[in-house]
Specification:
The chain is α+β, with helices and mostly antiparallel strands. It is 37% helix and 25% strand.
Length: 179
């Protein structure tokens, strides 16, 4: 069953921050991500910084008890790609012209995660499809070996290629795009 979703802007996501942080830690502490305590501890600041970005948009779903079951958020990729670790990795992997082509006018999906008890119910598909609707292109980063990668492929996303090995040390990360 697909749960109803709610759309949030940056300030609107603040009341859900504690639930989002809890869900993130539950999802990313487990394999295949197996984030370290330091990585998990850095997430609250990462979420706050993300919510402050121009064009930040999020979708959330909750079950009948109000417990958060899924989150997807991102923003339009800015024209200025300088001084950002992610964009630097894209440029290193694909070159500036290809990175500019990938990101120009695109929606950048920063996070998509679903409570383990609710995975396999179509929530991620629903969130991702709604989040990127209306955008001519969208892109995200994940491991091609993560379970979500098969969902992206099923939805018509294609793997553009890997990022440098040091981008995410625990697991190979690749860029997926939907054009």
């Amino acid at each position: 069953m697909i749960h109803p979703y709610d759309r949030h802007d940056g300030p609107g996501i603040a009341p859900l921050s504690a639930q989002i942080i809890d869900l993130y830690q539950r999802c990313y502490a487990a394999p295949p991500w197996s984030e370290t305590p330091e990585q998990l501890g850095a997430y609250p600041a990462k979420l706050a910084a993300s919510a402050a970005l121009p064009g930040f948009s999020a979708l959330t779903t909750s079950d009948h008890t109000g417990r958060l079951t899924g989150v997807c958020y991102g923003w339009p990729t800015p024209a200025d790609l300088t001084g950002n670790r992610i964009y630097d990795a894209l440029i290193t992997a694909f070159g500036l012209p290809a990175t500019t082509e990938l990101t120009r006018g695109a929606f950048e999906v920063a996070e998509l995660f679903v409570h383990p008890d609710h995975q396999g119910q179509g929530i991620a598909s629903h969130l991702l499809t709604r989040m990127t609707a209306g955008w001519p292109t969208a892109w995200l980063i994940t491991s091609p070996h993560a379970p979500a990668a098969s969902l992206y492929r099923k939805l018509g996303w294609r793997e553009l290629g890997p990022l440098p090995d040091d981008f995410y040390p625990q697991l190979r990360a690749s860029v997926f795009t939907r054009a």
